[in-house]
Write the structure tokens for this entry.
Amino acid sequence: MSDTHAQTVPFVRETMLPPAQPPTNEAGAVSWLRQNLFSGPLNIALTILGLLTIYYLLQEIVPWLMRSVWEADNIAQCRQIVAERWGAGATGACWAVIRERWPQFLYGFYPQHLYWRPTLALALLFVALAPVLFSALPRRLMWFSLAYPFVAFWLLWGGSVFLPIMVAAGFVIGWAAYALLHRFGTIAAVAGAVLIPILWWLFLAGDLSRDLAGLLGRSAPLWLEPVRSDKFGGFVLAITIGVSGIALSLPLGIMLALGRRSDMFLIKALSVSFIEFIRGVPLITLLFTASLLLNYFLPPGTTFDIILRVIIMVTLFAAAYIAEVIRGGLAALPRGQYEAADALGLDYWRAQRLIILPQALKISIPGIVSTFIGLFKDTTLVVFVGLLDPLKGITDAVRASTDWKGIYWEPYIFVGLIFFAFNFAMSRYSMYLERRLKTDHR
Amino acid sequence: MSEVIERQIDRSHMQVSDEVAIQISQMNKWYGSFHVLRDINMTVHKGERIVICGPSGSGKSTLIRCINRLEEHQSGQIVVDGIELTSDLKNIDKVRSEVGMVFQHFNLFPHLTILENCTLAPIWVRKTPRKEAEEVAMHYLKKVKIPEQAYKYPGQLSGGQQQRVAIARSLCMKPRIMLFDEPTSALDPEMIKEVLDTMIELAEEGMTMLCVTHEMGFAQAVANRVIFMDQGQIVEQNEPGEFFRNPKSERTKLFLSQILGH
């Protein structure tokens, strides 16, 4: 009765209460165990079942890994060593296959004396990526990032240095055309910036680079030994396709997402039908189209590099997915953001670039990175158009050799681990980026 | 009602000139088949402070959103600062950079700091050098009394502070006209005052202002004209003293009795 009474009497607080410490008897390892693993009969049963499963798996895997053989010339020798050391009937991992064949997994059939070129290209890739991924680095490094695709192309495929230079010159010409034509209006400038480089690439770049190469001869600094696309394989191939696809599909995906939300009927219709068509067919269909059908449409005698064709198809495929992921991000932005940008007098492109896309892309990071990871793993599908991907192409080649016939787990584990390393890095980077861009302080 | 306006208003700079700032004639707007704005005729002179009030759905927000073309009108004419609003994008962007707008939900850009919010449009639309834009922004942030928040993000500020930043952001474009779309209706009572104070200061400096608001104290203290709208039409307009003491139409009387009754 007394406390009811206390509540009904007029009350004025004299001093405000400071925040107090929470009770401490809830912390500690034992209470954690009890709460998370043994909180009831069902959880106790599940915990025991889980532990048994882990034990069962480990007792198969750990001995197999413990009995690893690193030095052997072929699988028979491997098995013999395992039998000698651990008795007949024992099984052991035969990593000797990786030790002997790792260059093939990494480089495919790329000429052995030229291994330094893809290796250098990979090392430079990290240099080129650094300023893109980490904003703390000086912005001037971006110039190298812009030049990197041409450097990498030259290193990987070789030939005359003038071909990538002439292709790059097309972009410079496009930029110059835009700057010169700008005073005649935006449409003229954009048309010029698109059409003039295309004409340049189609009619001038090839001849010019051939002439320059012929003029200056095939000497060392301007000429690298050419490597044909069918020599590519393993991770050189996977990374070439994967990185190009990732770099190209993001801008294309952004354009498609904006196109799908456009008020202009034609642009919207084109974007929607492109996205729906590409998402509606399996990637393998597109790859077959790239490898077989395109030949029928192209004029006879044209050689259109197979890796380039595959990169185009993989890019289109990923771009359709990225467009939808980004559209989700765009839709999540409140209308007020568009209105505030409009009310300040920002035009469409500035509003998109400065206000809308930074926020929409931030929301879409998990989806975009998932698509990138999917794209990178899907590069193994190029085996269906006769390219030697690391997972099936190269592994089959290794397993078909007389020395390693019958080897099974080791190559797949090796390839799987490398894929995992790349994808895990992408995933961690995306989490870092999300944390860095978090400004809402919820 | 007027308890939030405690201070003396300095009227020395509040002068209405003959110059026309906004001219709206025979303007109509439909949302689909719904006729939201019906035959709006209105002239705003430079230096006027107009409060627009009315029940929800009366079209008052739509009206001021038409003035900077956040909404498109289908017939009639809107001329802002001598520029007619048509579908010509160049004119629209020109008008928008001359007309500041403050929204109910602030609409600050959450990925940019307060200072970046304020300098973005001057840098990209007005092509002001960054340093100069930052100086101007700090000047207006001081004016709305939050210069110390310049390097924070909008999410770290209270609602009242965010709305003051939104006002400063508009002022950084040095607009000739300011539009306020229910600037205080998303705020806690404690924060309404700080925003109204900022708006009063702006009025004291002679800014041309159109405010959609239910703050009748503000209307009485600052406005030189109150417009009452219902069902997409201007029902009554008068100078505030007469408007509140002696409303003419029945609809206005009913509205005023409801919002002032308690």
